[in-house]
Amino acid sequence: MREALEGSQAIARAISLCKPDVVAAYPITPQTHIVENLSKLVADGNLHTEFVSVESEFSAASVVLGAAAAGARAYTASASQGILLMSEVMYNISGMRIPLVMTIANRAVGAPLNIWNDQSDTMAVRDAGWIQLHCISNQEAVDTTIQAFRLAQETELPVAVNMDGFVLTHTMEVIDVPAQAEVDKYLPPFEFSRKLDPANPVSMGTLVDPNWFSEVRHSHHAAMVKALPKIEEIDKAFAKVFGRASGGLLTVEGDKKAKVAILAMGSVVGTMMAGQDEFKDEVGSARIVKLRAFRPFPAKALRDALKGVEKLVVIDRAISPGLGGVLGTEVSAVLSTMDNGPKVYNYALGLGGRDIQASMYKDLLKAIENPKAPRFAIFDADLKKLPPEDR
Amino acid sequence: MAPRSDNSKRLNELRMKHGRPPAGPNEPKAAKAEPTLREQQPRFRGLESGHRACQGCGEALAARLVMESAGPDVMVANATGCLEVFSTPWPQTAWRVPWIHSLFENASAVASGMEAAMKAKGKNTKVLSFGGDGATYDIGFQSLSGMLERHHNVLYVTYDNEAYMNTGIQRSSSTPHAASTTTSPVGAERMGKRHLKKDLLSIVAAHHIPYAASASVAYPADLQRKVRYAMGVEGPTFLVIHSPCPLGWRHDSALTVEIARRAVECGLFPLVELERGALTNIMPIRDPRPVAEYLKLQGRFAHLFKKNDYRAAEELDHLQALADHNIAIYGLRGEGTDPVDTTGVAQVRRGGPLAGRN
Questions:
Q1: Residue A316: enclosing H or E segment and its boundaries?
Q2: pLDDT per residue over B65-110, tens digit each?
Q3: The domain that contains A157 carries what CATH number?
Q4: Which residue, A125, B215, B267, B307, is the most exposed by fewest CB within 10 angstroms?
Q5: What angle do CA A26, A186, A89 make, to 5 degrees?
Q6: A197 and A314 together in one domain
Q7: Nearest to residue B38, comparing CAs of B21, B24, B19, B17?
Q8: CB B75 to CB A198 under 8 A?
């Protein structure tokens, strides 16, 4: 049914459709509306779940870890500092290969304190061993959330669904909310092969010495690599039931033959598509690569998508100070094995919630026409605001 | 094949004497003896033998006693620490129940999640959470408080050996005053730990949970009664078990139980029970021992017995005052006589390494 819903409200509805046994969360802007909506669904008797209001994000992650290990479908949501506080547990969840789902309402990481959107939080846990998916719209976030539960239990890996804070979480959009019967058809009841069960006791999280640790890491890596086709397969299965897909590992939008490309994750992809519609007569059209899976990283699919591209702008919503953009650096690494790969321009944009307008499409394409264009920059930083020694 | 040693013969005699089956097919069978008391009382062994705890480990003993009483329909969330490390070196495990270790500071939260899962699934399996004093008094303090406040149906057991033993004897907030550890060493300027042992039981009781108690490996029947009671309570329950560590406390590994007993008898580790925040039961000590009799058996307090050191005398007085304070506030001298109090136990003639000595 099509309804006008705020992003967070839509996510709460999607979670409710997936019938989690246990939800644990701690409030943090801009994730709060998700847990408020879930709490209300529980209070009204529309969602039957054990809702655990914890005393920190650290415990939120630990509660869902314990719940999923004990065989329950578990869900949590967080952002920013909350993700960093969870990070130790996040490594633990994936290391034990416990399937659960988390929404990250992407927000900058302090200091300085900033509650607005960028993707520094999810980038800070890129090596935590979770599947990390990015959404460009609230419809995609709803659909990806439902897919994430199936993906988690089929891969026995935790899945983080990223949606930009405020830009998506606090924005009204017309959402096609799936029917319960269809979700039930798509998403089987939760099963976890190694669950804690007194009838068949197992020990989880044991001490592993150097004789075994490398093999454990290898199998984790192998599981992530195997998840690549799984992400596509589960998206296709979703399209079969619901009539729309969310973009598999990545999709190419815009002019698929263009020699200039823009690659990005999250809501900024939509902004670039709007910018192309508006400014293509002025600066020409580009291939717009919408990267949905950040972990596992679809290296081959990306190289295929960029065949024939000469110049590539990678938009980053997070930086690694002293190196450059996080996504840009990874894309460059992946393209290094490509013959005649594109020249990469890595530009960080919209850090800490700075507005990215459709005209940015034009600004980016114009900038790389300059042969002296820098290969990395915080593109929208106004250096005039800084003392000369910091520029 | 090498001839059998006399030692083997001796072992076989012992086996026969104790009614156990012979070790090999060539050894004579024992006369059919009456089953021993132990054989008549089969116990659930949730924590099996063969793990890698040190000789005389108080924590291993305590955990075995807890598991015996808790029974098979449980699952355990274990914090990082000795218990976790010595019981589960991959690919081995000493646990016969579902067991999970996540991190140092989140055992209570993991247990909360497991309990929520059981609730959601309509199952009665009781969730236990285990941690040492570092995991409980210090780094996991917040998640413990959260679990108690949210009223999860979890029995939390802390095995209190009064320091970070797994990392090599560093002081925790549970380390007693004046104890020497590797991070509270004795020197010209210091007489061991400068601060008091945190009174965690009172803090836990202040959450007004249904049941919180202290126990000691020296009093296994009392310990197991407390576990059984807690198992029957719906809601959060808490048990702190005084568990000597021969390596960290620097005492002979044969003295674990004796030292734990003296800690109770001198008043430094009172055995009490609190329900909904109110004191409901104590184990009385009619005739408290001087704290020196507890302290002098342990290397971590050796500096308190240095001759002609006024600081040693001062700290000894200080510890005696702490014990006296416990005796006063908990009323440990009790009223009337009670055949099962510590005095009764102490009056029984015992064997063991300190028989005939004070």
A1: strand A311-316
A2: 999 999 899 999 999 999 999 999 999 999 999 999 999 999 999 9
A3: 3.40.50.970
A4: B307
A5: 30
A6: no
A7: B19
A8: yes
Three-point CA angle A248, A250, A252, nearest 5°:
120
pLDDT at B308 over 80: yes
A152 and A275 housed in the same domain: no
Number of domains in chain B: 1
Residues linked to residue A378 through DSSP beta bridges, in sequence order: A348
d(CA A160, CA A104): 7
- Global ipTM: 0.96
CATH code of the domain containing B260: 3.40.50.970
> Does the pLDDT value for residue A291 go beyond 60?
yes
Query: Same domain, yes or no, for A261 and A129?
Result: no
Amino acid B344: pLDDT? 54
* Residue in A with minimal Cα distance to B112: A63
Residues A93 and A223 placed together within one structural domain of the fold: yes
Q: What is the mean pLDDT of residues A160-184?
A: 97
- The per-residue DSSP string of A269-283 comes to HHHHHHHHHHHHHHH
Q: Which positions in chain A touch B167 (Cβ < 8 Å)?
A: none
Is residue B151 in a domain? Answer: yes
The DSSP output letter for B253 is G
Q: Which of B84, B101, B121 sits opposite A71 (nearest CB)?
A: B121
The C-alpha atoms of residue A129 and residue A98 are separated, in whole angstroms, by: 11
For residues B282 and A223, give the distance between their C-alpha atoms in angstroms, rounded to a whole number.
Answer: 55
Q: In terms of residue numbers, what domain contains B186?
A: 39-346
